[in-house]
Amino acid sequence: MQFVQLLVSGISQGCIYGLIALGFVLIYKATETVSFAQGDLMMLGAFCGLALMTVLGWPFWIAVLASIAAMALFGVLLERIVVRPILGQPAFSIVMLTIGIGYVLRGLVTMIPGIGTETHALPVPYKEQTLHLGALVLDVEQLVVIAATAALCLLLFAMFRYTRLGVAMQASSQNQLAAYYMGIPVQRLNGLTWGLAAAMAAVAGLLLAPITFVHANMGFIGLKAFPAAVVGGFSSLPGAIVGGVVIGVVESLSGFYLPEGFKDTAAYIVVLLMLMVRPNGLFGEALRKKV
Amino acid sequence: MRFIFKTSYAQDIRLAKHAGHRFWYGLLCLGLLAAPWLLPEYWLAQLTFVLIYGVVGLGLMLLAGFTGQFSLGHAAFLGVGAYTQAVLTTMGWPFALALACAALLSAAVGVVVGLPALRVKGIYLGMATLAFGFIVEEVFARWESVTAGNAGMYVPPPQVAGYAFESANAFYLLCLAITVLATLAVLNLLRAPTGRAFVAIRDSEVSAQSMGIHLARYKTLSFALSAALAGVGGALYAHKLQFISPDQFSILQSIDLLLMVVIGGLGSVHGAFLGAAFLISMPQLISLGKDWLPDAIGQAPGLQAVVYGVVLVAFVLFEPMGLYGRWLKVRTWLELFPFYRKGMFKRQKSFQKSDRLK
Amino acid sequence: MNAPSPHSDVLLSAQHLSVRFGGLLAVNDVSFDVRRGEVFTLIGPNGAGKTTVFNLISRIYQPTSGQILYHPGQGAPLVLTGQPAHRVAGLGIARTFQNIELFEHASVLHNLLIGRHTRRETGLWADMFFTPRVRAAEMRAREKAEQVIDFLDLQHYRDQLVAGLPYGVRKVVELARALCTEPQLLLLDEPSSGLNVEETDDMAFWIQDIRDELGITVLMVEHDMSLVSKVSDRVLAMNQGEVLAMGTPHAVQTDPGVAEAYLGSVDDVSSLRRSAPPAKAAA
């Protein structure tokens, strides 16, 4: 029983990691840049939902959809203003840029008078509900996370596999110049990708909010999402979710069965093991430069 | 305007390329030596921190700027050096011996952290170093018998041959000496085959290998040296603060170090020190500027994060060559005045090519 | 062509080399000998496996079967296919790359000095203290690099960053860097690709000088037939990973199989036409 509950909570936490990792992998697949700002975008999405629900008093579903849309727009703007000028520069610079963006977002939110430095609860309709399956007592919040993640995954997979948009995104990630020549609107695609990633971060934030509450340092969970992406393989979308779930479950179980301190580092130990055994992750592809 | 007319190989090999170099660097050295008598105590302490962070920055610059290896967990090495120094000097070991051990232990940890570098590149390596950073920080917190865990530990002042460097002036001069030695060591490496091998690995691993450079050996060496320098910096850091705790060596510290080398100018030794100066002076500038801002902004807790973030973003967008790059442009403008042409340092528009196929 | 030559003038001997990438057989049972002091050229259409053979020799790829024997001295041959990639330069084999692989953020001189890596005389600690031994070694390395710069007329570009140089100059810098390793065998991958007529002529003279003055054996891949005829002693034609013909340039170029596969003798281009040719057009 304890084990199943640990498993469920691990999977649900893992889904959050997976959703954020999905954002990374999406941006990486399309533009081959790694965005360290995903965690803070998630935090921003949660605050956005909070503001719409508590300050403006909008009903739950409308607030959720509105925050996702708002964050998507924000992602597009972010790409247009800050990321686009430096595409083509070495990966290291772009990583530093996204770290800087994360800092700015976190700082700005903290600066909002009153709300910024406090921890808030998000008023969701399924708050604190539990589901009883025989002897099992499961948190509805966690189940909602799992269900929402699964649905989102299917949507994205279908998009990349079956739509021209998905193929175009992959093309421009591998060789931007050639994609331009093929008539692919590379810059618009990049903007779309960032918008999509920001929207997913918003979903992650809204799903996570009931569990961890909304506060300015929420974004640090994003750092655990990196191991998820690495374990799954940085170029694989389903891999991101699988990686996230793996990390979440390992964390949950080691928090209970292993001594103090392993819970926090479990994710990183898994990463190192994975890099030693299978550097390209579970689903990643190994590509080699032809000389 | 200065034309350097080269007449011998020795001239090219020398560190100070011409009389102007010798003059200005000589002046700098004199200034630094005289600092204890010229500066008030607070500013001397800040300068000491600049030197300490400069040494750590040298290490990170060697690894990231010159060998092209991502290191997102560099604070771990800082911590290893700090804790080793703290533990050994508390046990009564002399300063120099403890410092050597701190450097060696950091180098050993560097070799371990560098093992993934032999198999993976780019962002994967970054993740591995990030992971190591977290694990090492956790070890500091959990290994209470040695490090006193989250409660932190006190560090005695350095003792050399019975003389305790308790005064700020004496400690500053000690740091200055170590910094100068470290800088010369790195500069020497860079003008010798070892340093060139590092640069080769950064620019093209395949052709470095075909030139006979043993990739695994040199990457490991780079990690070891970089970690050793960070360890030395960490040891001095421990003595300066006189109290260390695990949260000083977290991911935020690692990001600060990266900020330092990026803003300073990736790929130059000057960049390490300019970045260190920036890192130390930024909080001062913010507190000075606070008074001019309206209360809502000036007193807000997130101001420092916003300023750091904005500056970092601005540098990456507008001045990728960092402070050193900006200084080069200014100097060239002054040298060529009034013939400076606007497009001299213009970046070529580059199209993104897949890094996975590198 | 198949058995290893008993002559002591064989420098490199490829024996029944095969490489398989997944389902693709990139190189299939290729054997040839390169004799000391000659210029040996590999020709063939794109995808024939020529650069793959190069990559096998410089140990970037591992052959699925077969081996390469290398005779640097008079003693027993070295099995090259058992060596790691970074040892190849030290054994006296240098190469240039088809898509230039220079160190972009270093000057031309720096690139050449990196080429001297296998001849370095000092290790980490001496380097850090820049002892007089290191200084003397640096001077010697500089002298050798200057000799190569003289040979290839690169004085003008000595201190410029590679990143800003025109394509033709970069090709020469690649060649210079390979020469700095003081090789016995030089692998040139398409030395004239992207060069104009004058630059190609210069390249031809340099290849001849490398063979005649420096005594270096040259193994090259080339598409420019006039360059091949001008400088090569022997030619090997490949197609789809297999050997088609080997011999003097003239013999190979007039071989019917080579003509069909590579040089072009097919007149029937009807499959490429978009519509039926107009009746009045001349045949």
Walk me through what this model shows:
The complex is a heterotrimer of chains A (291), B (358) and C (283). With 291 residues, chain A is an all-alpha fold. Chain A has one domain: ABC transporter involved in vitamin B12 uptake, BtuC (Orthogonal Bundle), CATH 1.10.3470. Chain A contains eleven helices and two strands; from the N terminus they run H-H-H-H-E-E-H-H-H-H-H-H-H. In chain B, strands 1-4 form a two-stranded antiparallel sheet. In chain B, strands 2-3 form a two-stranded antiparallel sheet. Chain B is globular and about 65 Å long. The relative contact order of chain B is 0.15. The C terminus of chain B is likely disordered. Chain C has two domains: 175 residues, 3-Layer(aba) Sandwich (Rossmann fold), CATH 3.40.50; 77 residues, no CATH class. In chain C, a hairpin with a 2-residue loop joins strand 9 and strand 10. In chain C, helix 3 runs parallel beside helix 6 and helix 5 crosses helix 6. In chain C, 42% of the residues are buried. The chains are: A mainly alpha (291), B mainly alpha (358), C alpha/beta (283). At the B-C interface, helix 1, helix 8, helix 9 and helix 10 of B face helix 2, helix 3, helix 4 and helix 5 of C.
SSE diagram, text form:
The complex is a heterotrimer of chains A (291), B (358) and C (283).
Chain A: H1 2-31, H2 38-55, H3 60-83, H4 91-111, E1 130-133, E2 136-139, H5 140-162, H6 164-174, H7 176-181, H8 186-212, H9 222-232, H10 237-257, H11 262-277
Antiparallel strand pairs in A: 1-2
Helix pairs in contact in A: 1-5, 1-6, 1-8, 1-9, 1-10, 2-3, 2-4, 2-8, 3-8, 5-6, 5-8, 6-8, 9-10, 9-11, 10-11
Chain B: H1 9-13, H2 19-38, H3 41-66, H4 75-90, H5 95-114, H6 122-142, H7 144-147, E1 153-154, E2 159-160, E3 163-164, H8 168-190, H9 193-203, H10 205-210, H11 215-241, E4 243-244, H12 251-264, H13 269-290, H14 295-298, H15 303-318, H16 322-336
Chain C: E1 10-21, E2 24-35, E3 39-43, H1 50-57, E4 65-70, E5 78-79, H2 88-91, E6 93-95, H3 108-115, H4 124-129, H5 132-152, H6 167-180, E7 185-189, H7 197-212, E8 217-221, H8 225-231, E9 234-239, E10 242-247, H9 249-253, H10 256-263
Parallel strand pairs in C: 3-8, 3-9, 6-7, 7-8
Antiparallel strand pairs in C: 1-2, 1-4, 4-5, 9-10
